[in-house]
Amino acid sequence: MFEFFAKYLVEKGGFTESELELVRQVTVSKKIRKSHYLLEEGKVSDFIGFVTKGAFRLFRKGEDGQEYTMKFAVENWWISDFTSFLSGEQSNCYIEALENSELMWFSRETWDHLIATIPNFRRMIDKLTARNFEAHQNRIFSNISEPADTRYENFVNSYPTLYNRIPLYMIASFLGITRETLSRIRKQAAQRKTTN
């Protein structure tokens, strides 16, 4: 598992062998079974995970009892309730494994240690945070300004391997549409492909 993560660190952060060894010494690997939770509402998100295998989703429950998917994470993606992690306050989110999954697990202490002792780690995380913020803003703009079929098309184009791994009702929730609307959009898209 660490070899997968090490490759990512070299590609994204330019880590040296000695830096990789420092990370290896403090990193814990975890296996999570499908449908199990990494985090539940009311608990503090005291970890950050890097997915080496599998898929997760971060979601919240509305007052209506519905689940609202806010984020997915698959291989090479990070997962946590970052608001709870940074503030130390209780989370209002859940993180669920959608497949049998594996991740590299960083406690708050480990994370702070890596940020403080490895400059490449801090630089990499700063870049990822900026990209994540931009993606978050783009998603908000898309959800309030684009029609549902455009949102679905953008999702499929942006995450070509993801939409086949995630249940449709979760994708619909992520896109801010009903399952019925998503089914209609997918049917229309399939018809357009067969007529072209």
From TrEMBL:
This is Crp/Fnr family transcriptional regulator. Residues 30-116 form the Cyclic nucleotide-binding domain. Pfam families: cNMP_binding. Transmembrane segments: none annotated. InterPro entries: cNMP-bd_dom (IPR000595), cNMP-bd_dom_sf (IPR018490), RmlC-like_jellyroll (IPR014710).
